[in-house]
Design brief:
Blueprint (H helix, E strand, L loop, with lengths): L4 H17 L7 H16 L5 E6 L15 E2 L6 E10 L1 H6 L5 E8 L10 E7 L13 H12 L7 E5 L5 H10 L2 E5 L3 H7 L9 E7 H14 L2 E7 L3 H9 L8 E3 H4 L6 E6 L10 E3 L2 E10 L5 E9 L7
Parallel strand pairs: 1-3, 6-7, 6-8
Antiparallel strand pairs: 1-2, 3-4, 4-11, 5-8, 5-9, 9-10, 11-13, 12-13, 13-14
Helix pairs in contact: 1-2, 4-5, 6-7
Length: 318
């Protein structure tokens, strides 16, 4: 895969972030998401590859654009699978809160788990704790193992958990073992990726979030040398049937990071929409804006942070 493709994909996430950031705090989730989808789809038309969306906005009958199975790209270049979320955190943007991003991951055909649109129990850590997570163990034991791997006390760990009623017992268990907790309203892709950067102060992601988002997080953590496990948590029989249609035979299987994102040449890009632990959000000024992005490549282990200034009188306005 051409290494410059990673930088081309950054332009795609920048386009989606610039468009959706206009809706920050306006209270319109649908408009924020649609603007990101439209801008991302237009930007993909200039990327030199033949892409197939395997993680997207939903199935064809649910999403008019960037649906699972849609073909994207210029039509020239390698055949690749694409996992994307034009706006990871629609509610975040609508309410003007932190950690919204635009996200894209690409790899060779068959490199991503075709995750159904259901929820997933996840645990994610950075490189220092690689190999120390196991969803078959209790939260308490996982945190002790993570602390041992990171050569610190459990009390030194910061665990990010989505603030949901379903996590009452998880929160209790983490508190009892002594770890610190950071509750978030949305945006667990950002939180999972943050575990790979010590400066964010995030050590562990735990709890149930979206399954497609789990694949995106796994792609980034593969590039960073981190670790992750996930187990599907279907909410009803319809979701179980959807999973089976997508080739999931064992709904209770624990997926390791290499099962979620197994490509040998994964590329990942994200651009901040609102300020977060890892990326700054879009900053508008008269006639333009500034964006903050990250681009990663698994094969080389390269991680680039990219600050860009966009002039709206010279650049496309998505």
């Amino acid at each position: 895969m051409e290494r410059n493709l990673a930088l081309e994909v950054v332009r795609v996430t920048e386009a989606a972030a610039l468009s959706s950031a206009r809706w920050m705090g306006v209270g319109n989730e649908k408009a924020a998401d649609q603007s990101a989808v439209d801008a991302m789809r237009r930007a993909f038309e200039a990327v030199p590859f033949c892409g197939t969306v395997v993680i997207g906005e939903g199935e064809r009958d649910e999403a008019p654009m960037l649906f699972i199975g849609e073909r994207i790209g210029s039509g020239d270049g390698p055949e690749l699978d694409v996992a994307l979320d034009p706006l990871e955190g629609t509610t975040i943007v609508a309410q003007g809160r932190a950690n919204a991003m635009s996200v894209v991951a690409i790899t060779e055909t068959g490199g991503f788990l075709h995750a159904p649109d259901t929820t997933m129990d996840k645990i994610a850590v950075g490189p220092k704790a690689k190999g120390a997570v196991d969803l078959s163990l209790s939260p308490e034991q996982n945190l002790r193992n993570i602390a041992d791997a990171m050569k610190c006390y459990v009390e030194d760990l910061t665990v990010v958990i989505l603030d949901r009623p379903r996590h009452t017992e998880l929160i209790r268990a983490v508190r009892e073992v002594g770890a610190r907790i950071k509750l978030i309203q949305d945006g667990d892709v950002s939180a999972a990726i943050a575990t790979g950067f010590p400066e964010t102060g995030v050590d562990v992601l735990m709890g149930i979030g979206g399954a497609p988002e789990g694949v995106l997080a796994a792609a980034a953590l593969q590039c960073l040398g981190g670790d992750m496990q996930g187990r599907l948590k279907a909410r009803n029989d319809h979701e179980v049937e959807r999973a089976r249609r997508m080739g999931i035979k064992d709904i209770d299987r624990i997926y390791r990071i290499g099962d979620l994102a197994k490509g040998n040449d994964i590329m990942f890009a994200a651009t901040g929409v609102t300020d977060g632990d890892l990326l700054r959000g879009v900053r508008f000024f008269g006639g333009g804006a500034r964006t903050h992005s990250v681009a990663m490549r698994y094969r080389s282990g390269t991680v680039r942070f990219i600050e860009a200034t966009h002039r709206f009188d010279r650049k496309p306005v998505y």
